[in-house]
Write a structure and sequence with these properties.
single chain, 409 residues, alpha+beta, six-stranded mixed β-sheet, four-stranded antiparallel β-sheet, 13 strands, binds alpha-D-galactopyranose
Length: 409
């Protein structure tokens, strides 16, 4: 995909059956080329996700409001007659075939991206679901690399979906989400919450998922944006240190929770209203930690209010809450950085922008904005120009559509 200001990049991508078919042909052809022949290979797809609001609340027992996208990961897989695992990613062509085996399901640096599918195989085995043969697996993702639209969770859910299909494991889509998260936490060392894998495994076209991470209860909310679209802007800043900072935020919240538990009977920060937080916050003995916990509590309440606003067709209020979410992530949670702040603050200046905020873990990655149709071109042009001027490289813009969860193609 092209970088820079081009409105071309803002066209919906892979939204219709023809494009999906074309992609299917591409991956099947490549599979045959890489693995000798395409005999018996099957094609699968799992989406990426965008979170509309409810950031860094999922590991605090709060609410999130993510949606699956129509972009994601295409996978071609075939069972083998031995224990071998052979992996190939069209996104990392230079790496060629990466080989492993079912007897070697251990994380290692050299395994690179294959630690994600291997982690899922390991997680299934941990639950007593052992594969009785290896597989050949080729992937091709059209989620912009390192964009924070959950390419890793997409690969995890895709792998789980393939294993269920091939080996008859008795698991629901919700289980696929939990297994994906388990593997990410325990095999790949990122202490992520459940949001990404859940949004991907449970995705529904034109809907976002209002999920209570305290008990995994959820409802689907239709996203009907009359005369407006969801625009994702990639900062093109790769995350790098993000994962360690992510774990740091998580433990700051855990410590704040332990301090609060001395004065109020709660299991998670997500149980608190803003008033309860204000009345008890002095139990948190550190100013930084207090701000982290404040974000978790207020963001959870904002998410509940935002979904109510959407249900009442008040998209303007939804947008204001998105903006407030960004401010809180910038000032209290401190996970934005100059790139995401520039994108969002420039977006706010443009008439026709209903709301704009960072989405995902932060520290780079993407913003999500709701932009009126007539303002999309000027949004791309103005935000793009201002960003390039300040940051020195371009941003990419995607007008996205919300799609279904994983499937066989
Ligand atoms: C990452 C994690 C999610 C969630 C978000 C922040 O995407 O994988 O579990 O915590 O960050 O909301």
């Amino acid at each position: 995909m092209k970088k820079g200001l081009s409105v071309e990049t803002a066209k919906p991508i892979f939204t219709n059956i023809e494009k999906e078919r074309a992609m299917k042909d591409v991956v099947l052809k490549k599979f045959a080329e890489v693995f000798g022949d395409g005999e018996g290979a099957k094609v699968f797809f799992a989406p990426g996700r965008v979170n509309m609001i409810g950031e860094h609340t999922d590991y605090n027992g709060g609410h999130v409001f993510p949606a699956a996208l129509t972009i994601g990961t295409y996978g071609v897989a075939r069972k083998r007659s031995d224990n071998k695992l052979r992996f190939y990613s069209m996104n990392f062509d230079k790496l060629g075939i990466i080989e492993s085996s079912l007897t070697d399901l251990l994380p290692c640096k050299e395994a690179g991206w294959t630690n994600y599918p291997k982690g899922v195989m390991w997680a299934f085995a941990e639950r007593g679901m052992k594969m009785d043969s290896g597989i050949d697996l080729l992937l091709n993702g059209n989620i912009p690399n390192g964009s924070g639209l959950s390419s890793s969770a997409s690969v995890e859910v895709l792998t789980g979906f393939i294993l269920r299909d091939f080996f008859g494991f008795d698991v629901t889509n919700q289980d696929l989400a939990l297994i994906g998260q388990f593997s990410e936490n325990n095999f790949n060392g990122v202490n992520c919450g459940i949001m990404d894998q859940f949004a991907i495994a449970m995705g529904k076209k034109d809907h976002a998922i209002f999920l209570d991470t305290a008990d995994l209860s959820y409802t689907y909310a239709p996203i009907k944006l009359e005369n407006a679209k969801i625009v994702i802007t990639s900062s093109n800043k790769k995350r790098g240190l993000g994962d360690s900072k992510y774990n740091e935020r998580r433990s700051e919240c855990e410590t704040a929770l332990t301090e609060l538990q001395k004065v109020i009977d709660i299991k998670a920060l997500g149980e608190l209203t803003e008033e309860q937080f204000e009345a008890n916050k002095s139990a948190i003995k550190d100013e930084v930690r207090m701000r982290r916990a404040k974000h978790a509590v207020y963001e959870n309440q904002r998410t509940i209010k935002a979904v109510e606003a959407l249900q009442a067709n008040d998209v303007a209020l939804f947008g204001q809450l998105m903006n407030a979410s960004h401010v809180s992530l910038r000032d209290d949670y401190e996970v934005t950085g100059i790139e995401l702040d520039t994108l969002v603050e420039e977006a706010w200046k443009i008439e026709g922008v209903i709301g704009s905020r960072m989405t995902g873990a932060g520290f780079g990655g993407c913003t999500v904005s709701i932009v009126k149709d007539e303002a999309i071109d000027s949004f791309i042009e103005k935000v793009g120009e201002a960003y390039k001027k300040k940051i020195g490289y371009g941003a990419d813009f995607y007008v996205v559509e919300l799609g279904d969860g994983p499937r066989v193609l």
